Amino acid sequence: MQLLALALVLAQAATPAAAPPAPPPPTGPVVALVVAQGRTVFGTITIALDPEKAPISVGNFLKYVRAGHYEGTIFHRVMPGFKIQGGGFTPELEEKPTQGPIKNEAKNGLRNSRGTVAMARTSNPDSADCQFFINLRDNHRLDYGIGGAGYAVFGQVIEGMDVVDRIAMVPTSSRGPHENVPQMAVVIKTAREVKAVAPVAVPKP
Q: Distance between CA atoms of 70 and 58, rounded to whole angstroms?
């Protein structure tokens, strides 16, 4: 009997604990990015924003969307298994003017999980302006308290992760000081606020 009880305890210990359920997608404003490479339209990346937990970052992102800033910019940093980053450069790798840095909101409790959208920045925590990135996997080392000041998550892809994954597979190379640049520009053709759509589960890679 004791041996049976011990076996049951060991079996339970060997069974991995179920992962906690993912938080529901935010229900704030929704932005749609239409992405293309040359004449090939990759599709639309639809992002739900979270103004409740990231009001500064969301307000900043919408400011650039409404100004048409993102149209014609590229995903200039593509790192498979990590992230895709864009919003700041033209296909010629000329940096577009910005409206100044914002305060880092990484302490808002939102995690850098697959499909989330976060502000890109320099080593200065409060240096983010227009650039953003989309996490290709759970990058929790970028969270506040794990990666120092952390990187502020402000939204989540609710449709179009297949487009994000397709961007992640394009060939890249170095161009001047820039690494991981797509050999053929991946361009944000349009960036528009749209009506909210029903959230869908983010597919695993």
A: 15
HEC secondary structure over the chain: CHHHHHHHHHHHHHCCCCCCCCCCCCCCCEEEEEEEECCEEEEEEEEEECCCCCHHHHHHHHHHHHCCCCCCCEEEEEECCCEEEECCECCCCCECCCCCCCCCCHHHCCCCCCCEEEECCCCCCCCCCCCEEEECCCCHHHCCCCCCCCCCEEEEEEECHHHHHHHHCCCEEEECCEEEEECCCCEEEEEEEECCCCCCCCCCC
pLDDT digits (tens, 9 = 90+) for 149-200: 999 999 999 999 999 999 999 999 999 999 999 999 999 999 999 976 555 5
Q: Both tokens of residue 42?
A: 């990759």
In the structure encoding, which two tokens stand for residue 18, read together? 């179920």
**8: phi then psi, degrees, rounded to nearest 5:** -65, -40
Cα 198 to Cα 26, 27, 45, 158: the distances in Å are 11, 9, 14, 8
pTM of the predicted structure, to 2 decimals: 0.85
Closest alpha carbon to 152 in 185, 187, 116:
116
